[in-house]
Structure formats: C-alpha cells, structure tokens
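Format notes (please read before filing issues)

Several people have asked whether sequences and structure tokens are stored in separate files. They are not. Every record keeps both together, in the order shown below: the sequence lines, then the token lines. Line labels are part of the format and must not be stripped during preprocessing.
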Amino acid sequence: MKIIRDKEELEGTCYIEVLPGKYLETCWNEHSIFFDEEVFGYLEKAIYDIYPKYDHYAFTEIHRDIWMLILGKLNKLVALLDEKVTMDVLNECVYFFFGSSEDEFQQDFDHNVRRLRELIIEFETWIKEQLRTQEYISVLGI
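Then the structure lines:
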C-alpha cells in the first residue's frame, strides 16, 4: 500500500496516475504519482463523494476548490482511522475493488489501518504541495 513516485517502478499499465495540472494529452508524466488500482480505491470514494463527475476509467481534471473539499473528506477518514474503526465503518468510506481485497485487508486489520492512515496523509501532503502552484490536479484513470 504505497504511492509510486518513480514511473520506472511501474509494471504494466493498470495504474491510476495523479498529475499536477491539467491533462496535456500524455500519460506517465515525470511529475505524477501513481497508484495500484486497488490502493487508489482507498482514496477514490472520497473523491467521488465530493466530485461525482469523477470516473475511474476517464481522465478527470479537478479544480483546486474541489480538492480542498476532498482533502476535508480525507481528513475525516484519518480521524476515523485514529479511533477504533471497524470493517463495517471502513466499508462506508473506501472502495475494495477486488473480491479478495476486503478479506486481505481484514487479515491484518490493525496493521492495514495504520498503513492506510499513512497513505492518506502522504497523499494529502502531496496534493497540498501541488496546489501551491497548480490550479488543477488531474486523475488519469485506468
């Protein structure tokens, strides 16, 4: 469960790319970060809940103002993870993309909750850094 910052680490094409700025007709950009599809599912519900135009399979340019709302939603998720969160509560907040994803998460639940919390905070930090100079951050779907 991690953010991939070096595109040399990518194997294949089943990744979500988060690009600083608007989509400029190219993928696999040097300044982007990347997520395994399953990992991005943990963040994706917060995006979709705030911005219903978001599409997992499309290229979506999201304005700074919307990102600020998404960050607020992610902050609430971090607060939930800091409490004694249950799998039922977590299911309301994140997507588990594959049939086995939820079972695998539950197998080491406490550890995975900590890792998810760290992932969200790292993502929030990156988004905030980009928003200092960018009006948009794009999510390039599968």
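For reference, the curators noted about this record: The helical segments are 37-50, 64-82, 87-93, 101-107, 109-131. DSSP finds five helices and four strands in the chain.
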